Please model this.
Amino acid sequence: MEMELLLQFCINGLMLGMMYALVAVGFTLFFGVLDVIVFSHGDTVMIGSFSGLSMYWWVNAYYPAMPAAGTAFLVVLAAVSVVVLLGMGVADAVIVPLRKAPALNTLLATMMLGTVLRESIRLFFPDGSNPHPFPGLLPDWSWRSSQLTLRFDNLALFCSGALIIALVHFIINRTRLGLAIRAVAQDEEAAKLMGVNFRLVVLATFAMGAGVAAFAGVMNGIYYNEITFGVGLLLGAIGFSAAVIGGLGNVFGAILGGFIFAFLQTIGAVAMPFAAAYKDVFAFGVVIALLAWRPTGLIAEPASKRV
Amino acid sequence: MMRQMLAFLSGSAGCIVFALAIIVWLHVFLMAEEHVPIFICLVTVVGLGVAANMLKVTDAVRTSLAEHERLWNLCALAVPLALIWLFREDHYNLFLIGAIMVYAVAVLGLNVQLGYAGVINFSCASFFGIGAYTSTMLMTGAGLPPLAALLLGGVMAALVGCILIFPVLRTSGHYAALVTMAFALLFKVFMDVNDFFGGPQGITVPPMTLFGIDFSHNMLFGDTELSFYLRYDLLCLLLLGLAFCFVRRLERSWIGLSMDAVRSDDTASACFGINISRWKITAFVVGNCLSGLAGALYAMMQAYISPANFTFSDSLLFLSILLLGGIGNMWGVILATVFVVLIPEKFQVIQEFRYLIYSGLVLLMIIFSPKGLLPRQPRSYS
Amino acid sequence: MAARHILWRRVLCLALFAAFFYAAGDAEAKTALRVGYIGPLTGGNSSIGLGARNAAELAVFERNEDSGATYNYELFSLDDECKPDAGIKVATKMASDKKILGAVAHYCSAVALGTVDVYHRYGMPVIVYGAVSPGITYGNNYPEILRIIGTLINQNKVASEFMLSQGYKRFAIIHDTTDYGKDHKDYFTKFIKEQGGEILEPMFGVTSDQQDFTTELTKIKSMNPEVIYFSGLTPLGVRIRSQMEKLGIDAQFEGVSGIKSDAFIAGLGPDLAEGCLSFLEGSPVEKLAGGEAFLRSYQARDFKNLPDTMAPFAYVAMRQFLDVIEKVGPDRKKITEALYKIKNADTLIGKVSYDDHGQNSEPYVSKYVAQDGQWVVWEDSEYASGKRSLKKPGAGK
Model:
């Protein structure tokens, strides 16, 4: 295969992988702290895109003279603040009350919550059932050869995605808040006895996960130039798969899982030209096989079983 | 006064009153078509449920259930029969009643897996679908008689389950959940892109024929023309009855005890010499077989299947039935099936708002009563 | 803490009740003859389904206000979600209810192909308003099934001739894996090959909820097509067109009737949509007598959704039902027979005549190009007059 074509596939795969990784980081954070799977996370991403879009419309209507950088900043700000509030609300109203219930209940409750979010956007956002164009926001400088298109905005998105994940990693491992989060993750009771404010830690974790999701939403919008209300379910399922094959509770696992899943989808479509439509079958099949091989993900959880 | 009433209800009369109440309510609810009656029906049932709980009527009914089990089983048989007769000419409501019974069979299968052995399964609808597609292909492709195809549908689901169980056994918790979830997604996409099984378009399913009777024709009974769904409903009732007896026997046997042990603490049960893998495999295979059988019958009844019937969301629907009914309680499961099948159907009157309101209701249910409608009671060894 | 949660629950409860009453608000019971509508009211294609429902409702409203009408009518509408299984369920529900005399139904071919058996079994006449797969009318001998919109065979014939006449030779194909997408692809490739065009292999089948098409498009880019033909519905069409731009693919984008919706242009924005081609059965509404009046009275009713593409078809079909019922009375069999007698009728969407299979045999197909954020009939566009031009054939080489 030509070098340029190969490179283009790699770029596509990397962008897709970064998006999955950002979603997977959320899953892994929530799981690490509260041992819960928050399945509405994919729809949280979608809410992020839509709140960003609303801000863009607002800016365009009232301050059309705003410089592009300012608009981009405001869009991200709007997405992050709406979604962070939503994430904290969800934690407080659904996750914490269900903490003592079986894990299945939380899973199902958050899936239903995801449907509620999805349907609310479809019904109450203006013209919500249709796809909406998302503004490019970033300068569209690009370099083209016959088979390859390198775009500045892709590069910028990729780098800022990486930066955000690094930031999350830094917060968890190097700050007092991170210390508290890790303490709660290890032993809730003991952490409480040591004076950690449990509720605050949970809210902070959800705020952080939601913030990353909001960024993923805006990134999704900029990358595809188009957003729909229905992307959350599959994105959630893929993000969850990515977090799990990487190994739950581990930020690096989430990144690894995200890129592996994107890689599998790309390989599936490239290597089987006769059956490109089977690429998801291929990807999920490999996920099952991977789990049969490494039952607790590629980067395994430190498993010590209390008997 | 109140005490006498409770005593009355905890005897055999409680059973009959309860059965009559269900027949009347379901009859009214199935007939209701406008917003207001449907809403009143729902409010009534919620109100009655809450009131029954506060006045300790639920406890009385529970006592009655424990003491007069045979009578309860008979009544359970009488309720669907009565409803089938009441709706004998009404195709759509008969179809819904049949769908409830078929779904209940599949959820009973899930109940064996999750409720007894604690094996998580997010792909119940896929096995339901495997049963449906296998029986259809065997009938149209190989020309097998429908009854044989129905049974082989169940067998095929069990066989596919035998393969999937290996990664499930190796993993646990959320990892096992992902294995089955990935299978559910894989199954749907596979069916979607596959021409052989009809693709996303779906395929037409030949009707059931039994002893030379074609199930797809209406039948005459005196002057009235009975709906063809009536035969299907009787067959569904038979399947549900058999499945119910089977699962009940299983639960009360030493097998059920072993499964309970495996679920509640696998380390401890391994210490006592219980073979964990064996019982998990048994539960998974038995449960999938039931789902497959149910799926095969559902396909014939609906006369048409497509991959969209068997998505991950449908698997969630089955799980939500189990959870709302109370994991492990067979009566609760059947009761919950009634609500979960009927409510979205009745919500058609509010058109585009129905998913929003339905998922909101389920969310509230999970938050309000996390143990489901009728939580499973501890075993009684007396 | 506990008190806060109780508060939360109360708020949630209240919100749900409010939503229910809001939804229940516009309903009122009355005794009248019933007619039905089935289409996608939820999901990605709901804008078309809702527009068509409103149009059917408009036809019923107008008839009820008409003092000359013998009967009073009530519209009973159900949601097929654009999914065959849901469609079968609601079709059974509607057809088995003998009070409902007939229905205007289905935008999605996948649904219609599944439900025709149901309508036949119960003997309810149905006019299909938006699904174009040939098998719906020609795949069976059911008298109950009529269709007001043309089949996709004509559409692809016109499309292939048009594309070749514009000088395009090399076509890459993306299709969704439903029968709708596959039928379109089959006829289009057949016509193109017959007339000497080249179809580039492999063709790409995609599922209808796919998000990322960069892999497929990258491969297509390396095949150097002049045209990318997509057969499928609006949501996918929007994604493919915008991702083409991202990958710098400089080929002409051609869609089928499934993308000829306002939502397609709204979803892409006018710049990206500019120059996209689509084809649709029937003449454009604005051009025909009564078209303006239809749009005006639609707007006057204060519906919550725009009419979108299929509204005129549903409106005309519903009016035909009501006319026929006025004539022959409330009897399904007689209504079915009377519908076949409609020949050469002048309507909002052009001539309508039903053949033996209940297919409207007036095969006019309009060509559309997106220009300045609107679908413009090709002949009236600045592209046809030479002011603007489509992507140059051979430019990719």
About this structure: Residues 1-86 of chain B form one domain. Chain B touches chain C at residues 34-36, 39, 90-92, 95, 189, 192-193, 199-202, 204, 302-306, 308-309, 345, 348-357, 360-361, 363-364, 367-368 (CB under 8 Å). Chain B has a mean pLDDT of 83. The first strand of chain B starts at residue 203 and ends at 204.
